[in-house]
């Protein structure tokens, strides 16, 4: 992932891991990664509940902005149908009298919402929801993902506007340090009203009642040419406007790798640069991402680059049961929302052990300080191929 040369990455041990080592605890890391559990809630949300699992924003607790949002909605005694465009673990559905319409783009969040019996809808900003819910709910809730950039937050606001009927109310939450005031100004201009009604540390909640008026446009995708590929970067997708330096190092380092006719998995594909690059070199590619917006981006990248491949919306390998690959390529994530979390990256490496054919190879790139060698050693002997610009490329051949 992107980062400068001087990297200070504090790595939290996974729950249950032993001190002095990065090894996964017994019995099975996969079972632990897939496990649904009640989210840890702050005392002020007593009486409410949500499910969570690794990979969901806020895990093992809940997202701070969502916590404040729900507090405000509880105080307002909101009841009836509520459209939640960033449902995460379904916290809003536990408000008494609320019927939740849960929308999510994150595969881990969709899994917990389904587990909770909430029949969520997988969608991204700009999707038309009227086929699913012909009548719009009068209350809409949204947590701005300011950490996903300006274009994504504006797309979220436009989407919330399109889905709030005139006279309906939007509860908008976000982080002051991630541009909340700016986005509220934009939202208020579109809605015709709006004021910040709650503050807690850096978290904010605004309430907007929609007056008649046009919906702002959803920002267009960005794009670039790199490594022989035309990348289509939809708003909010990792490295949407230019190649990530770590990814570029990985692809430069693998320039001589023969991928012709090989089955290649791009795990955590983002906009699809790695997978499209492999397809252009004759590989049969599968691209996977937990984020639906990234899946749509990667599909567009394959098409724009004139190559074919399958793109799958999946929490790591949860939708890849029984599949095997010759090669896995990855620049694993180490953030979920605002926090540095390595559960997902560790699961990427565990998945490599499950998905590679014997003799198959995984190549991944990471910031130098990230302790990936030990979990990768479970796949096979680890070799550091190159170290440059604050990153390292690691390889393991499945024994
Ligand atoms: C560092 S980015 C790399 C993106 C792309 N491969 C590149 O090099 O530009 C990591 C990607 O992993 C995805 N991701 C995060 N959690 C995931 C999960 N649980 N399962 C699958 N993909 C995930 C993110 O959405 C993001 O696109």
From TrEMBL:
<keyword id="KW-0489">Methyltransferase</keyword>
<feature type="region of interest" description="Disordered">
    <location>
        <begin position="1"/>
        <end position="31"/>
    </location>
</feature>
<dbReference type="InterPro" id="IPR002052">
    <property type="entry name" value="DNA_methylase_N6_adenine_CS"/>
</dbReference>
<dbReference type="GO" id="GO:0052914">
    <property type="term" value="F:16S rRNA (guanine(1207)-N(2))-methyltransferase activity"/>
</dbReference>
<keyword id="KW-0698">rRNA processing</keyword>
<dbReference type="Pfam" id="PF05175">
    <property type="entry name" value="MTS"/>
</dbReference>
<dbReference type="InterPro" id="IPR007848">
    <property type="entry name" value="Small_mtfrase_dom"/>
</dbReference>
<protein>
    <submittedName>
        <fullName>Class I SAM-dependent methyltransferase</fullName>
        <ecNumber>2.1.1.172</ecNumber>
        <ecNumber>2.1.1.174</ecNumber>
    </submittedName>
</protein>
<keyword id="KW-0963">Cytoplasm</keyword>
<keyword id="KW-0808">Transferase</keyword>
<feature type="compositionally biased region" description="Basic residues">
    <location>
        <begin position="1"/>
        <end position="11"/>
    </location>
</feature>
<feature type="domain" description="Methyltransferase small">
    <location>
        <begin position="229"/>
        <end position="395"/>
    </location>
</feature>
<dbReference type="InterPro" id="IPR046977">
    <property type="entry name" value="RsmC/RlmG"/>
</dbReference>
<dbReference type="GO" id="GO:0052916">
    <property type="term" value="F:23S rRNA (guanine(1835)-N(2))-methyltransferase activity"/>
</dbReference>
<dbReference type="InterPro" id="IPR029063">
    <property type="entry name" value="SAM-dependent_MTases_sf"/>
</dbReference>
């Amino acid at each position: 992932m992107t980062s400068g040369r001087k990297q200070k990455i504090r790595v939290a041990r996974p729950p249950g891991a032993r001190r002095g080592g990065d090894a996964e605890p017994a019995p099975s890391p996969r079972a632990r990664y897939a496990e649904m559990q009640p989210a840890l809630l702050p005392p002020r949300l007593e009486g409410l509940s949500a499910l969570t699992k690794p990979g969901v924003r806020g895990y093992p607790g809940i997202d701070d902005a969502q916590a404040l949002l729900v507090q405000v909605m509880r105080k307002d005694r909101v009841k009836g149908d509520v459209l939640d465009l960033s449902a995460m673990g379904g916290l809003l559905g536990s408000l008494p009298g609320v019927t939740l319409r849960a929308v999510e783009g994150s595969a881990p969040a969709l899994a917990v919402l389904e587990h909770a019996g909430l029949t969520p809808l997988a969608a991204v900003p700009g999707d038309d929801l009227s086929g699913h819910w012909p009548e719009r709910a009068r209350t809409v809730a949204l947590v701005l993902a300011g950490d996903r950039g300006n274009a994504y937050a504006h797309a979220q606001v436009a989407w919330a506007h399109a889905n709030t009927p005139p006279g309906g109310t939007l509860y908008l939450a976000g982080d002051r340090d991630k541009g909340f005031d700016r986005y509220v100004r934009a939202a208020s201009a579109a809605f015709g009203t709006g004021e910040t009604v709650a503050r807690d540390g850096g978290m904010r909640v605004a309430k907007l009642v929609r007056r008649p008026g046009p919906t702002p446009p959803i920002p267009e995708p960005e794009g670039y040419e790199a490594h022989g590929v035309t990348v289509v970067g939809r708003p909010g997708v990792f490295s949407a406007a230019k190649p990530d330096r770590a990814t570029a190092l990985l692809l430069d380092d693998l320039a001589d790798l023969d991928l012709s006719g090989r089955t290649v998995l791009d795990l955590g594909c983002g906009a699809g640069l790695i997978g499209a690059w492999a397809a252009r070199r004759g590989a049969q590619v599968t691209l996977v991402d937990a984020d639906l917006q990234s899946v749509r981006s990667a599909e567009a990248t394959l098409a724009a680059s004139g190559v074919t491949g399958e793109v799958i919306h999946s929490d790591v390998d949860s939708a890849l049961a029984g599949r095997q690959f010759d090669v896995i390529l990855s620049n694993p994530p180490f953030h979920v929302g605002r926090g540095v979390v390595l559960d997902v990256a560790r699961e990427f490496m565990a998945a490599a052990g499950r998905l590679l054919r014997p003799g198959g190879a995984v190549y991944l790139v990471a910031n130098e300080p990230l302790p990936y060698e030990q979990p990768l050693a479970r796949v096979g002997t680890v070799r550091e191929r190159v170290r440059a610009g604050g990153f390292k490329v690691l390889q393991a051949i499945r024994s």
